[in-house]
Amino acid sequence: MATRQSEVLLSGEFVRISKKGGLFKVTVNKDCIAYHPVHSPETPMETNFIQISDCVGSRCERPTSGEQNCGTWLTVIFYPFRKKLFSGKRTRHRVTVTFQIKTSDDFEENSRLAEKWMNVINCLVREIPVAIEDVESCVPPLRKKLLILVNPKSGPGRAVSIFKQEILPMITDADIPYKMIITDHGGHGEELMKDLVLDEWYGVVILSGDGLLYEVINGLMSREDWKSAIKLPVGCLPGGSGNALCCSINYAAGEPVLHDLVLHSTFILIKHRVIPMDLVVVQTPSKKYFSFLSVTWGLLADIDFESEQYRSMGEARFTIGAIKRIIGLRTYKARLSFLPVTDYIPKNNSEEGNKSNKLLTKIRRFSLRSRSSSKSTVNSQDEIEGQSSSEGQSSNVNGEPLNNGFDVDADFKAQTVNNSASNVENPSVADVNFNSQSIINDNISDLQNGNKVKTEINGDGGHVEIQNGGALGEPVITSDCTLRKETEYLTAAAENGDMQIEQEVIVATKREGMPVPTPLMSPLDQPVPEGWVVIEDEFILAGALYQTHLGSDMLAAPNAHINDGFIYLMFVRQGISRNALLNLFMTFNEGNHVDSPHVELVRCLAFRLEPLSPGGNVMIDGERCDPCPLQGQILPGLAQLMAMK
Ligand SMILES: Nc1ncnc2c1ncn2[C@@H]1O[C@H](COP(=O)(O)OP(=O)(O)OP(=O)(O)O)[C@@H](O)[C@H]1O
User: Where does the DAGKc domain lie (predicted)?
Assistant: First the structure.
């Protein structure tokens, strides 16, 4: 029985308010609420479970009927999965269970007991640990308001009614205070962010397509206090026709993407979780953008921009746009350059590809720090410039400090220097290694293009061991940051021998008062730095992607993670037939396009695109910009996203 597997925090016997009624034994532990009729034995057959992970809150109320009634009602609201009747699709649906809390004739006493149950359940729902000794006193912290921006013009124009009919009831279930603003012109979101009093809000959520979130992020980054502003959690609900970030969030959380997107996205939102999100700083000759989704060019951008006219059709607009563009296929000449995470081997180069069967040797990563870790043993310029450990620290709804992505790498640095092999237990190191491990796990087929050698580390998807300690390069002081290379030697047990990996972490420590550092890129009018790969060719499409999805049926970068610190550069060169291209688009929904010999998908830290033929479109997070030379660099974990892993 689940209730016996972990500590029982609460236990009582209450009448269930339902058609059947009856007295139930109810218990709460950290994972679930269990109840079974008292007259029958406690068997799995008779016991009902409410998983805390499905639960969004509980509330107490005095029954309206029955004046003699001195009991209080305790209602638990949860959204378990159920198969839809005809389609068989797994979807969440709303369920409530109500018990009458009545252990005495005194209404006040019953109310206090019901409130205790409510507080414990609400803490657990918000992942606030509750020990048995806290049960009497635990109260979930008060929440700040959520600012919800609704774009009435997004997608097919239904955002306001979606908010009222579908989202508001769920927000009410979770008892989340909010303020809703309907945007009334393009740029409104950005204006609001520039003047927002950060302390007043728990976070900002958009109900729109990706364009409004783009405004929110760029508005926050344009502020003088961008460093703390960008730590304000942002969230998104689907109101547009593409909703790529919503799909990526749902995919990462294991929630459905292809149906009931509003329901499942709102469920994630009201679960109160926040995780770091990578951004990419994109530079053009005239402007700087902060992008959270993608930069696309060629076919993908043409479809996105030219299908605007079919906006009223919702997501079908992309299918029509794709068919039109594939019939009238264009190729574009460009120079595409990038700083790869591992050695780049072109997919069509089978000789090189075979050589890459040798186990992976080098991983390149980038880490952005705002301050030094107090654990660091290194004395350097970055510590002199470091800020106090509490400065700029944001907290989640529970008042706990958020892991903002900087700290993860700060810990990693300390561990590296301390040369400790046992550090794999440390969650922050594990986090860094998880991302490296994900490369190794899927590396050779994915990264080295065409090689199907799959390597399982330690046979259990386990971890990479730090074997040989690390080396720390000399700090280099640039105009906007202090730069240093940390080299880490990792060993992973693989099927066909140990895999030796050199992991090079390029660490940039930001200088106070300076903009976000971009040390991986050279100025746009100068050649790319050493170590970059440069390809000059005719392309059908190119896209720098940092989320899994470009739309609900476009699993474009299946291995991407919201905060893995990588850009996934996808490109298709000319030489693919229209038929093959059409087939490619048909396989996008499950991410199988990556197996096509025509599709290259390379993990990198920075890229540069220089269009060499006129025309076409460049889309940054779905917003058009004129084709021009542009470049982008990853900013690992810079933003905070309302999402779950
Ligand atoms: N009231 C408004 N009237 C006109 N434009 C608006 C309004 N509010 C916001 N906008 C603008 O609408 C633009 C498009 O919004 P967004 O991308 O979020 O939706 P969408 O284009 O419908 O979504 P998708 O790209 O998925 O189709 C945003 O850049 C924003 O500036």
Answer: 141-286
